[in-house]
Amino acid sequence: MGAIAPVPLPRAAARGLVTAIFALLACLLTAQPAGADQTRSAQWQLNELGAKAAWKVSTGSGVVVAVLDSGVDASHPDLVGQVLPGVDLVDGGDGREDPVGHGTTVAGLIAGRADDTSGVAGIAPGAKILPVRVLDKLNKYDDPAIIAEGVRWAVDHGATVLNLSLGGALRSDAIAEALRYAAARDVVVVACTGNVATDPSIREVWYPAREPGVVAVAGLSGGAPPSARPTAGPTASGGQGGADDGLWAGSLTGPETVLTAPADNLTGARPGGGYWQVQGTSFAAPLVAGTASLIRAKYPEMSAANVINRLIGTAKDLGPAGRDDEFGYGEVDPVSALREPVEEVAANPLTAAAQPKTESGRPAKATPSARQAPHEGGAAPLPSGEVAGLAGARQSPASEPVGASITVGLMATLVILLFGAAGVLLHHRTRRSDRF
């Protein structure tokens, strides 16, 4: 059988294709990170969590939230005046600088103060951030004692809510003791459940989120334009749900999961005054920590145990009815947490050993969860909270917005198309010259 000759492409069409590809390539090469005027509409989590309605009741004013992280850039426009002098347990200082960006993003999601048209607004814009730097320039910690020291320091310096967007595989006696220290002093502790891709060998909820009494937060997907949203179907962890109420595919979950919150397609504050797109359970946890601060401001005499009970008792049920291992009690609901009547408890419901069961065998809704005993381990190095949301490069000192990774992929595709179009045009010219 003879070869099939290619169909000649008219010269004008070929040139037009090449011109169009060059134009698209130029747009990508000159694209800049999202500016402040583009960030407010991108903060889908504010609508998802009913932030404006919650702010009519409480903004978190008077509450101090400790962010144990990579530091916080206190000069960011959305955080000016929001960040108290803290401590840098890595290099020394007051924690108000951030060489990584992780802590700045977390702080902005909690207490960012933006106007109606620009900037990153936190879920609790009236709260203050107490920065406690415990992560190094690689966004890691090697010695769990530094986390324990950070927890104690934060408690001793006025924090009533702690956000721990970090963790690892092994249990630490030092951290466990520090968390008991916080609980004895009526402090709410929130931690992320961890990410699948940060360390694929870890298949369970990170520690310290596994520690009884800690509010362990997994991530939800959403925020993509309608055309880009996946259809409903099995998630990576086996649950059912679409982008609006589905588990984020990168979220670790397990029996210790307590609550969920938005975790991807989030716009976050970036050191130096900029913004970037982030994803990860590290960025779901601060939305719950911020909600806890809303409650503490609204009910200043309420104990930490009852703040936690209110968080879980008013959550939006997701997945199977009642508490489950993927969504916990469901998605945090700031408005309901501030307004709904909730029966008081005498102790942190997350530390109870036994739970009443439903007919299905699952723990009943709005009751404490039965928890697996955390794994014992020595003082082996523990990976920190993910850099992935900032960089797409896990556990790496290099960082760039997720959008930049997407841009590189699109540029590569366009380059391939460009060379293909150029080849077609050259082939077309060659055939024409052969005729004369």
Structure summary:
This protein has 436 residues and is of the alpha/beta class.
Task: Give a written overview of the molecule.
This protein is an alpha/beta fold and 436 residues long. 32% of the residues lie in helices and 11% in strands. It is built from 12 helices and 11 strands. The protein has helices spanning 11-30, 36-42, 44-48, 51-55, 102-111, 144-156, 173-184, 285-298, 304-313, 334-339, 388-391, 402-434; strands at 64-69, 87-88, 128-133, 161-164, 188-192, 215-220, 233-234, 240-241, 259-262, 266-270, 274-278. It has a 7-stranded parallel beta sheet, sandwiched between helices. Strand 7 (233-234) and strand 8 (240-241) form a beta hairpin. Helix 5 (102-111) runs parallel beside helix 8 (285-298), helix 6 packs parallel to helix 7 and helix 8 crosses helix 9 (304-313). The longest helix has 33 residues, at 402-434. Mean pLDDT is 76; it is low at 1-37, 225-243 and 353-436.
Write the layout of secondary structure elements.
Layout lengths: L10 H20 L5 H7 L1 H5 L2 H5 L8 E6 L17 E2 L13 H10 L16 E6 L10 H13 L4 E4 L8 H12 L3 E5 L22 E6 L12 E2 L5 E2 L17 E4 L3 E5 L3 E5 L6 H14 L5 H10 L20 H6 L48 H4 L10 H33 L2
Parallel strand pairs: 1-3, 1-4, 2-3, 4-5, 5-6, 6-9
Antiparallel strand pairs: 7-8, 10-11
Q: What is the strand arrangement across the widest sheet?
A: 2-3-1-4-5-6-9
Count of helical regions: 12
Distance between the termini: 28 Å
For the sheet with most strands, the description reads: 7 strands, parallel
Order of helices and strands: HHHHEEHEHEHEEEEEEEHHHHH
Choose one word for the global shape.
globular
- Strand percentage: 5-15%
Number of strands: 11
The residue fraction in helices comes out at 25-40%
Q: Average pLDDT across residues?
A: 76
Low-confidence stretches: 1-37, 225-243, 353-436
Structural class: alpha/beta
Global Rg: 24 Å
